Amino acid sequence: MSRINLVTNETATTEQLELFNAIQSQLGVVPNFLKIFANSPAALRSFLGFYSIAHEGTLDGLTRERIALAVAQQNSCEYCVSAHTALGEKAGLSTDEITANRAGSSQDAKAAIAVKLARSIAEHKGEIATAELIEARNAGFSDSDIVEIITHVGLNYLTNILGKASRVEIDFPKVSLN
């Protein structure tokens, strides 16, 4: 059971319902972690805005999912590992690719560099080596791409800590951390 209340359609204010309706229209469902966020409509609006803007960048959806899986595993967030396994599969990632992503790599050589960098950023709280940036640039990532990788680490870190702090009930097929 969640340690922070889930806002439901029955308990939601008009503002929270409007946010839920917008989420429902885009995703087809309102995931439980967003129902936790909804306790603060300002926090939910901020997250949705950040999420939307971050997805306008040049990183492709598969790379974003790979990063999300790597960071969720790094941060031991079972909710996010479960969610991004389902989302990754829906986006076209294979089971073997998801396993590689969770381990901090990828079967795709370029994506492996992005995932490795993302894991390092999360693990070292941003204190990465210059060699890691050079490796990313040599793999074809621009400074814009690198900033987007960092942005997605931050975005996923936020959802990881919310999921862990709240102990939100997993509403995706459950995936174990080990």
Automatic annotation (TrEMBL):
Superkingdom, natural source: Bacteria
Gene Ontology molecular functions: peroxiredoxin activity
Span of the signal peptide: none
Domain Carboxymuconolactone decarboxylase-like: 47-103
Keyword Glycoprotein among UniProt keywords: no
Keywords for the protein's UniProt record, in alphabetical order: Oxidoreductase, Peroxidase
Gene3D superfamilies reported in the protein's UniProt record: AhpD-like (1.20.1290.10)
Keyword Oxidoreductase: yes
InterPro entries found in the cross-reference section: AhpD-like, AhpD_core, CMD-like, Uncharacterised_peroxidase-rel
Protein name: Peroxidase-related enzyme
